[in-house]
Amino acid sequence: MVLQEEKSMATMRVVQVSRPKGSLEIVERPIPEPSAGQVRIKVQACGICHSDSVTKEGLFPGIQYPRVPGHEVAGVIDAVGAGVSGWQPGQRVGVGWNGGYCGYCDHCRRGEFFACVRSQTTGVTYDGGYAEYVVAPATAVALMPADLPATEAAPLMCAGLTTFNALRNSGARPGDLVAVLGLGGLGHLGVQFAAKMGFHTVGIARGKDKEPLARQLGASIYIDSQAQDPAGELQKLGGAKVILATATSGDAMKAALGGLASNGSLVIVGAAESLEVSPLFLLMGNRSVKGWYSGTSIDSQDTLAFSKQTGVRPMCEIYPLERVSEAYERMMSGKARFRVVLTMGG
């Protein structure tokens, strides 16, 4: 009985937002118990993603406050709820943006789990990883390789997953020309994945100074969009089968779009406000423009395994939980190289 009382009194540190546009507050809360179908994860690291501003600024309708942000979670299962099979304490796992799905709506029945009408979002519809512990549905959990550091795994749960999954579903095959537009938080991973997948990889960014980085990441060709016409340069190379647009500029996407080969696709993962496209250009070459959702837990698991196997790694700036406000502002400033990660200590 005494042990049970001590357990119920145990607390954890979390970073919460109390209201839309509120500050990031470090508070103590009781450590939650997992309900049926859930697991509890002792968080080791959590990436800070630009999408965390959804919770911080109240950009989604219906967010219930106070809320703990964070959807790039890496840690260890320390408790499982009733009815959970396949997961057990001690396993190293991650949780990403997709925080679980119902399994019985029409989309789920078609295998379109990302489009579940009852889907949950980690750090938005339930408390996320800016905390020492997080409780998540078992359907949201991805197995993490034993020797992949948590600080490297965390950004792979969103930035890595998004670029990896977009590329492997893009229709490009090894040897095809694939361009990655932007060399930031998403793009520096996109170039690595493209090169490791066997694509003839082109990096596109602003400024000659980005070329060494692009080549270090695996690009065999670099295009400086300030000094060169990206579309023209890609066409000189025969046209791109895929342009992975990680930059958040519609103008930058428009400047590169003309570099698509016939049957090529502009695959958008950067959330630009708008994009101007010539329908005639699409029609005459059977080209397409499409967006790509990040992925579900099994996609996250594949991302982690592929990254471990091939040596793809995020470039990170690491902060302790106590410096969360500074870390968040660093990420939002766009100056971080290239991902920002919180560690929980202990």
What does this structure look like?
The protein is of the alpha/beta class. 29% of the residues lie in helices and 26% in strands. It has helices at residues 2-9, 53-57, 106-109, 150-168, 187-196, 211-217, 230-236, 250-257, 279-285, 297-310, 324-333, and strands at residues 11-17, 24-30, 38-48, 72-80, 92-95, 133-137, 141-143, 177-181, 200-205, 221-224, 240-245, 260-268, 288-291, 316-320, 339-343. The strands form 3 sheets. Strands 3, 4, 5, 6, 7, 14 and 15 form a 7-stranded mixed sheet that branches. The chain has a 6-stranded parallel sheet with strand order 10-9-8-11-12-13, sandwiched between helices. It has a two-stranded antiparallel sheet with strand order 1-2. The longest helix is centred in the middle third of the chain and has 19 residues, at 150-168. It is globular. The two termini are 27 Å apart. The relative contact order is 0.15.
Termini separation comes to 27 Å
Helices and strands, in N-to-C order? HEEEHEEHEEHEHEHEHEHEHEHEHE
Using only C-alpha atoms, the radius of gyration works out to 21 Å
Number of helices: 11
Oligomer: single chain
Beta fraction of the residues? 25-35%
Mean pLDDT: 96
Profile the largest sheet. Answer: 7 strands, mixed
Uncertain ranges: 1-7
- Percent helix range: 25-40%
Silhouette: globular
Number of strands: 15
Structural class: alpha/beta
Architecture blueprint of SSEs:
Elements: H1 2-9, E1 11-17, E2 24-30, E3 38-48, H2 53-57, E4 72-80, E5 92-95, H3 106-109, E6 133-137, E7 141-143, H4 150-168, E8 177-181, H5 187-196, E9 200-205, H6 211-217, E10 221-224, H7 230-236, E11 240-245, H8 250-257, E12 260-268, H9 279-285, E13 288-291, H10 297-310, E14 316-320, H11 324-333, E15 339-343
Parallel strand pairs: 8-9, 8-11, 9-10, 11-12, 12-13, 14-15
Antiparallel strand pairs: 1-2, 3-4, 3-6, 3-15, 4-5, 5-7
Helix pairs in contact: 4-5, 4-10
